[in-house]
Model the fold of this input.
Amino acid sequence: MKIRISGLLLALLLAVASGCSTKQHEQDHTDEAAVQVTAWSEKSELFMEYEPLKPGKKGSFLIHLTRTADGKPVAEGSLKLVLKPAAGQPLTVTAPAPIRPGVYQVELTAPAAGHYTLELLPQGKGFTDRIELSGIRVGTAPPAAPPDKKETGQKSDGHAEHDDHEGHDHGAEPHGDGHDENPVVAGDGGGTIALLKEQQWALDMLIKHPERRRLSGQITASGELIAASDAEATVAAPLSGIVSVSRPLPYLGKRVAKGELIALIEPPIRPDGGAGQFSAALAEARSRATLARQEHERAQRLYEAKIAPRKRVEEAVAALDSARAALAPLEKSALALGGDGGGRLTVRAPLSGTVVEVFSGTGRGIEAGQPIVRIVNTGTLWLKANLPSLEAGKLPRQPTAQFTVTGQQGSFRAGRLISVGDMLDPQSRTLAVLFSVPNRDARLKVGMFATVSVATGEAQEGLVLPAEALAEDEGRFFVFVQTSGERFSRREVQIGQKQDGLVQILQGLDEHDRVVVQGAYYVKQAATAATKEDPHAGHAH
Done:
């Protein structure tokens, strides 16, 4: 990757920022201040400091190299510096290795006064790059004409109009050759937040350009996985009795099939309750039905022999119908209850599924209607999303959703929409939305909490950043923009849609800005600490 900047004036006199003693940044304020240069390529970030070069005098370059891919220092390999005049032989110096990870120190004897081009060639294991800087000045040569700002596309105050600390203009000016996606900055770039390169490397920071992508609007809500209303059943005792010890109840988590035997219930000791009472009632109803049928047949024969009146037949018919009506539900219950031939009632699973609760135990007495086990078919679950009241109005007619659950990797896509609530929960002020969730591999469990993203509309293209790049302050959102190697500024942005950990930036950034996308918290802390110590520390006014 090559960066060529024409007419670059690097010998700017800058005040020395405090706190740089740990990096050999201390300077004698009676002499000329060190020159600071920051340049970026697709592969690396260069931050370089050196004393103004004087002909025939030895000069020292302190160079910090960072890989842009992961924000880590270039820890091995050589660095070649080639100082090239407009005409004549170039001067080449090589540092065989960094003096510490990411930091190279190169010394050279400056050539004759004039303007030079400096080419830097890092060559490490699996990492090579090329960075070229124009306008390096040696001696008292007149400064090169600054580039036309209209041509470079650079702002004369280094984006200072976006900085929260208005009025802190450092006079530093970025320079470019029209390729402002790879700019070169002399000085501190106007940033008001100082953070040394060694600190950035230690804090796991990552700095990237905003990406241009398509995002769909989303509502983030809390959720819970619940059983579908038609996929769970509580199996209860049909009659009073004792849970038989001859048949163990199914254990928690056991999968059962529809119709599978769940429990046997022994008749109670007292005949006036439970299975004994039911058996007596059934026997009595059958006896009454038999007597009513026999009486009906007798009355019919007597009427046909003209011995009994027709009224007796009609009364026998009514009695038979009544007896049959009383017997029918008892016989139906007897078929449903079943038996094992030993006088015990059988209780069977009404559906296939998993036993999620066990309420009783073998040998225990149980009353009619008392639950024994709860069975849930987890092949399909329901996702209950609780949408905040302020977001409920954004819900489309046919929303889609995806979600994550704690302890499970990746995200899950919800199935069809089941229902949307008609009223807000009075306590949580949320709107319940139900989705079906296929769960054939049984990874998801009833009762798991979820973070749900509900899509609200069509995808829109724009600049996006990871959500962790944003800092919120009283409802306003900010990012931290790198203005030079060790300087940052806080920039307010307006956000749009959110999706999959990304957020759309509507205003406040352009695609060439370099934004802290990982480790923004540390920059925020550095800004807070600097404000507490001295709001103007390290600023040249």
Remarks:
- Residues 1-30, 144-181, 534-541 have pLDDT under 50 and may be disordered.
